[in-house]
Structure formats: structure tokens, C-alpha cells
Amino acid sequence: MKLVPGPLPPIPTSSSMDRLALPLPFSPDSLFWRYPLGFASIGQAQQPPSSPLFDYKSQLPSSLASDPRVWSREDVVSFLRWAEREFDLQPIDLDMFQMNGKAICLLTRTDLAERAPGSGDVLYNVLQILVREANSLQRMLPSSPVTPTSRHPYPLSPHSHPPTPNWNIIAQNADPFQSSHAASLAAHLMAQSNSVTLSPAPSVDSQAGSPQHADNPQTFGHSIFSMGGSNGSGSNPSDSDEDGYDKTGQSGSPPNTPSAYSLPPPLPTMAPRSPKEVAGSPGMFKAVGREFFPNESPEPNTNGRLLWDFLQQLLNDPAQRYTNYIAWKNRDTGVFKIVDPAGLAKLWGIQKNHLSMNYDKMSRALRYYYRVNILRKVQGERHCYQFLRNPNELKNIKNISLLRQMSPTNLKPPAQIVPNVTIKPEPVEAESEANRDDYDEKPTDLSITMEGPTDLSSSSRHVNIICSPDPPIPPQHH
DNA sequence: TACCCGGAAGGTAT
DNA sequence: GATACCTTCCGGGT
């Protein structure tokens, strides 16, 4: 029986963080992926390395990396079993910890206590110490121009390491995002790192064979949102750990390969939008892009930086981890509902590095789409919108503004292809029918040849659609 | 109060 | 510099 690690300075917590940590698809993983500096360093970055490189680290199973944030799901299990033994903890329900190291590190003390009654504090403290030590070591590494955008599976050894961000700056000029700890964390880190760049998604193939994909067969590291939701259903943030890199810091994949973040396979990556996003990591995105999104892809890559594409990615997440935020009401007709407007806006804000994003602003962007016939509002239903364009079509239209002169294609594919995602909070069957009618009332361009699956909105399915230009129609708005 | 709308101005990237 | 695509702010309506 070891001494239980003593309490550490608490990291900021809030109900939002708690929410983030567990029930929401917006899992902590994404934050680490995007802001891999590590939350534990926030506010502590200026501190000297904390505890004496504590014993636990040396006593950890040899298979475990020193930095718990790089642990895979299996590593987490190993750690928990080790902790059980080491600290004579009550048996831990491993099912409650179907997550990778990054995810478990983001759990609050309360979260851990809930998942491991009687042991949460111990686990929390051990993890915090490990994280802190890892941070300390990394701070001591020479800084590099590499943007913190990249993930940091760096080995803790100072002798071999991939590019390392300057950890010292993390705590400076913090400008907390008020609404939630997660957002605060994002704000902190983004303010320091300018790194909100979404990593490219590994190819589906790259994910194959990974045991963690059982519940999430298609992972693609994508946006922050694509990370496994820690909703208890086994989000698999750990995917990235095995697939994106190995723990030695060597990998065929770029270090920031977030394979843990799952979004539909052909989903585009979020390309850096600003030079500063890539300034620190020359070649990073190019390399990644080449790896995961080879040029042979016939599909224009919108990279998830466009709102409609972003929404599509969330809607079409194979694991349906974002249905707490946005979900199809009728996938066939392109009708979806924003289940959590504020949360979705937050995600979008993080995606775009606009931390003050809210639903009001995001909805303004959605209304912008009215003009170009990408979206329309489902009348009478709050937070319900309808895609008027197939995503493939959109991606193949170089100039979206041209859509102003094009009527919606109004695809209405056979309904049997893709099961609709039902919105959990409220039954929508009747609404779906209503929406279908609503959909039908629009002038419909049927001059479309569809081959293969006729999923209107699934960007994860390659639907070859030949769209003939539609006769101009009067703008629906304006 | 929240949602919804759309004008206007501005920012950033291409 | 032009353009696209928002972002931000706002006044107003429901």
C-alpha cells in the first residue's frame, strides 16, 4: 500500500468541465488534440517542476508512457489495474474508463470519484502528478518553433523528442473563456498557441486493426469534435494514441495525427486558416494532408472550415457522438435539428478560433446560407434547418455564391439507405413527416443522377451526383 | 426570454 | 485589390 498522493492544486473545474469530461461528445480528447499543451499546465506553467519526480512514475508498468496523456485506452486500463494494486483501491469498474489517457486526465476529481467511488481522489492525484511531471520535463526541453497544434506524444526523454512547444508561455496572458472550463482551457491555449488547427484525419485504413475501434470503426482524427465522446459509451479517444503515433515518438503518422477523433472517413481536414496556425509547424499540415488526404481524392477538400461542412461532419459522424449537439431529424430530406445550440456554437467557435462564438452568431452564419440555397429554416421548429444541397455538390461548387442562382437540388433519396439519427431528447417522427412535406414543397430539381447510396447528406459516402444547373430562382430571402 | 431575421460593417484567407 | 466566407453587432419581429 502506497501513500496516496496528496492533493494537488486543483485545476480549474466547473460544471461545464464536468460536462465536458463525461457526457458530451465533446470529449477532452479533442482539447488535448487541439491544445495539446496539457490542461494541467495551465496556471502552473511557470511553476518549477512539481513534486520530485515522483515514485509512481518509476513504478508504473513499464508499458506505460510517462505522460498519461499519451496513453491508449489499454494503457489506461493498465494504469487503473496498477493503481488498484498499488494503492489497495476498491475494485475499479474498467467499463467506466473506456477512454484514453488524455481523456482520463481531463476528468475532474469529481468525475473520477463518480467513476471510481472511493478511488477517485487517488487516481486524480496520481494523474495530476504524472501530468505535471510530464509537463515539467517538457518545459525543460528546448522549445521549438513547432506549433503546439501538434499532438505531443513526445517521449519524456529529453534526448529524443519531436518538436516541442514552449510550455512556458502557456500560463501567460491567459484570457479565460468564461462560459466553461473547456472553453476556458481552449481560450488559454489558443491564446497562447494559436493552435486551433484541426488535424487531418487518418485514413480509414490506418485505423484498421486497432482494437479500440470496436465501438468506433471509423476514426479519422478530425476536428476537435471528432474525438471520442466521453459519453460513457466508449468513446475511443485512445485510438489516436495507437494509430497516430507510437509512444516512442516515432511514427509513420504525423505527431498530431488525431486518429482518436472520429469523423466520417472522407471527411476533410480542417486546414490551417492562418499562417500563424502553421507557422510553428512547417510541413506539418502538408505532410499530414498528404498522408491522409492524398491528392488523388477527387473530392474538393473543404476541410471542415466551412460551417455547412462542419455541420455535416457532426451530423454524419458514424458513431453518432454529436447527436447531443446536432442530429438529423430526417436525413433523407436533409432536415436536422440543433439540439444544443450553445454547445454547437461553442464547438464551432473552437473550430474557427472564435471563442466568443454563440448561437446567435452562428445562426447568422446559417442564415447566410439561406441566400445561397444551402440551407433553409424549417418553419415553426426551433433550431431546425434543412440542407438544400448535397454536400458533394457543395464541395464541387467552387464558388458557393453561384448557388444564389441555383435552385436547391432537393435530393430526396430513397429513405432506406441510411437510418436516421433520432434526436434523443424529443421524438420527431411526426416532425419528420412534416419536414418531408416541407421539403417537397420546394421547387425540386430532379435532374440528378445518383449512383450508389443516396444519402443526401452523408459526406462519408461517396455519392456521385451529377447536378445540372438549375434555372435561376428568386432568392428565398432578401 | 429566447429564437429568428436580415442589414451593415469588418476580419481573414485565398 | 477582389472575393468568399464568415464574424460581430444590431434593431426589430415573433
TrEMBL record:
Protein location: Nucleus
Domain PNT: 50-134
GO molecular function, one term: sequence-specific DNA binding
SMART domains in UniProt: ETS (SM00413), SAM_PNT (SM00251)
Biological-process GO terms, alphabetical: cell differentiation
Pfam families attached to this UniProt entry: Ets, SAM_PNT
Biased composition (Low complexity): 150-159
PANTHER family referenced in this protein's UniProt entry, alphabetically: ETS, ETS DNA-BINDING PROTEIN POKKURI
Name assigned to this protein: Ets DNA-binding protein pokkuri
Originating organism: Tenebrio molitor
